[in-house]
Amino acid sequence: MIETTVRKQYDHLASVYDQRWKSYIADTLSFLKTWAEISPLDIVLDVACGTGEFERLLLTENSTQSIVGVDISDKMLAIAKQKCSVYTQVLFYTASASALPFDNNSFDVIVSANSFHYFDDPLAALIEMKRVLKPDGKVVIIDWCKDYLFCKVLDITLKIFDPAYQQCYTQNEFHGLLTSANFAVSRATKVRFGVFWGLMAATASLQD
């Protein structure tokens, strides 16, 4: 039910999404690209890829990067496919984060940006990421951080007014979810963008 609500919301927003959130998208995804340290040889999965802006960023640096993006919004994906139409090694699929349509051990790097707060079952999503990640691969996630006052207020407000929204987490809560999914956090930080936005980033690998 929640995923249906999220899908409808982002199908509706798709045509204006990139322009409405232009600065936020540019700042956070540029940070993710630098933080993730993706090798040109890595096969990358982008969970909740939206309009494919992260893919576009990676491809400007390495036009042969192998990338797969998944999202539940067909209209967001239509824009992503258009952006990356000349890159035959870049593929997009309509899929839930909790049910990824890929074989085990398929990806070197899995990224997810600015979407974790919409997952209705974040632990299930992390377990799916673990399943499709190669044994020596890494997961890199950035999302809102409730340790910041603005995000704490936003969390309360959106729970009342946005039926698609689930919740954002403190850094400790987020790391607890990663640990519960049998990931080990290797790098982590918190960072502020502009006056208000506070995000957290984590790089994690499979526990031995």
Task: Describe it.
This protein is α/β, with parallel strands linked by helices. The chain has one domain (2-206): Rossmann fold. It has 7 helices and 7 strands; from the N terminus they run ααβαβαββαβααββ. It has helices at residues 2-20, 22-36, 53-61, 74-83, 122-132, 149-161, 171-180, and strands spanning 43-47, 66-71, 90-94, 107-113, 133-144, 183-193, 197-206. Strands 3-2-1-4-5-7-6 form a 7-stranded mixed beta sheet, with helices on both faces. Helix 3 (53-61) links the parallel strand 1 and strand 2. Helix 1 runs parallel beside helix 4 (74-83) and helix 2 (22-36) crosses helix 3. The chain is globular and about 40 Å long. The termini are far apart.
Q: What are the SSEs and their pairings?
A:
Blueprint: H1 2-20, H2 22-36, E1 43-47, H3 53-61, E2 66-71, H4 74-83, E3 90-94, E4 107-113, H5 122-132, E5 133-144, H6 149-161, H7 171-180, E6 183-193, E7 197-206
Parallel strand pairs: 1-2, 1-4, 2-3, 4-5
Antiparallel strand pairs: 5-7, 6-7
Brief characterization of the structure:
The protein is an alpha/beta fold.
Q: In CATH, what is the class?
A: Alpha Beta
What is the residue-averaged pLDDT?
Answer: 95
| Percent of residues in helices | 40-55%
Spans of at least 5 consecutive residues whose pLDDT stays below 50 are none
String of helices and strands = HHEHEHEEHEHHEE
Radius of gyration: 16 Å
Structural class: alpha/beta
Q: What is the domain total for the residues?
A: 1
CATH architecture: 3-Layer(aba) Sandwich
Task: State the helix count.
Answer: 7
CATH superfamily: Vaccinia Virus protein VP39
